[in-house]
Specification:
Elements: E1 2-7, H1 16-34, E2 42-45, E3 48-51, E4 57-63, E5 66-72, E6 76-82, H2 88-95, H3 104-120, E7 126-132, E8 136-142, E9 150-153
Parallel strand pairs: 1-9
Antiparallel strand pairs: 1-5, 2-3, 4-5, 6-8, 7-8
Length: about 160
């Protein structure tokens, strides 16, 4: 399982959604070259993008100034969130999130795990959550066991 990510710090944040979308698409194109995918045309299946002519699966997420894409041979869901102070207890209650540990970090772990499984689109066999780049929580949901995760930062210019 590979996660490629980019920082979008230097981008003018007038249209944040388009910047994140473009950065995610850039990562998908770079990974297509890395994986030797000749035709990286995408289609939408069950509201998720996928390669039309390759079997590798992926999931895109972005938060604050990072865009990330997880690639695997099995279906996968990815969520990343910037950790910031908030009334996490009220949000957890509203979302009916069960927190393993009653803390801000525990909340972000539960929230990103929930979102990653939602993006997966089916009940996850495995979910792995961890802090990422100091101020982020990242979660991966998969239909199979998650044996290892490799992170690769790509250079990106907007």
């Amino acid at each position: 399982m590979d996660i490629f990510y980019v920082y979008i710090d230097d981008c003018e944040l007038k249209d944040k959604y388009n910047i994140h979308h473009t950065a995610g698409r850039y990562i998908v194109e770079c990974a297509a070259k890395i994986y030797g995918i000749k035709n990286s045309e995408l289609i939408i299946v069950n509201n998720k993008p996928k390669f039309e002519f390759a079997d590798i699966q992926f999931s895109i997420s972005h938060s604050k100034n990072i865009a990330a894409v997880c690639f695997d041979e099995n279906p996968v869901g990815l969520d990343i969130e910037y950790i910031k102070n908030r009334d996490y207890k009220a949000v957890a209650k509203r979302m009916s999130l069960l927190l393993e540990n009653d803390s801000l970090e525990g909340f972000y772990k539960a929230w990103t795990a929930y979102e990653a499984e939602y993006k997966l689109g089916v009940k996850a066999y495995a979910v792995k959550s961890q802090r990422f780049e100091d101020n982020y929580m990242i979660s991966i949901a998969s239909t199979k066991e998650i044996k290892s995760i490799k992170f690769d930062r790509l250079e990106y210019s907007c």
